[in-house]
Design goal:
With 174 residues, the chain is an all-alpha fold. The chain contains four helices and no strands. The chain is elongated.
């Protein structure tokens, strides 16, 4: 039935909380396609497992007659093994990427809020002490905080206007 890849040793699903993923076994076949290269590619549809079983079951007796060579079947099985290897790891890796993105967002939010607090503190201290050098030395911090705040107001205003337009265009219920 063809050769078994030495990389297909464990095709069981990887736990979603796994933080270390050794994908070196994939190195010889992993690709990084250019943008939009996947457009038009065929993908697995419902019933594919039954098709694989049918092809492999009939190969010994009917493969040559059907024009399916031994090398065709070996390449087909290799692709099946590779997909199974990737499928076993993808959910856990996707979850890890999701967790990393969410953690980054949380940590970024923390530091942005800290910068806002720092800027407020600087302005309060400068006002209470009369030390104008604080304002000059932390000008970029204060400007950054103000720019972020202005952008937030602009976004909220734009969203509110869009919601008003959507509400006005909605048909009356009755």
């Amino acid at each position: 039935m063809g050769r078994r890849s030495h990389h297909a040793e464990s095709l069981g699903a990887v736990a979603l909380d796994t933080l270390v993923h050794d994908c070196t076994a994939f190195a010889h076949f992993l690709v990084d396609l250019p943008p939009r290269a996947r457009v038009g590619m065929c993908s697995e549809q419902e019933g594919f497992a039954e098709v694989v079983t049918e092809i492999l079951t009939n190969q010994a007796l009917l493969g040559d007659k059907a024009g399916i060579t031994k090398s065709d079947i070996e390449a087909f099985q290799e692709s099946n093994e590779r997909v199974a290897m990737l499928d076993a790891r993808l959910p856990a890796i996707k979850k890890l990427v999701e967790m990393m993105e969410e953690t980054r967002a949380l940590e970024d939010d923390k530091r942005q809020r800290q910068v806002n607090a720092f800027a407020d503190s600087i302005e309060r201290r400068a006002k209470t002490t009369g030390d104008k050098t604080l304002l000059a030395k932390y000008e970029k911090t204060r400007t950054y905080r103000s720019a972020v705040a202005k952008k937030g107001v602009k976004t909220r205003t734009k969203s509110a206007k869009a919601a008003e337009v959507d509400g006005a265009e909605a048909p009356a219920k009755g």
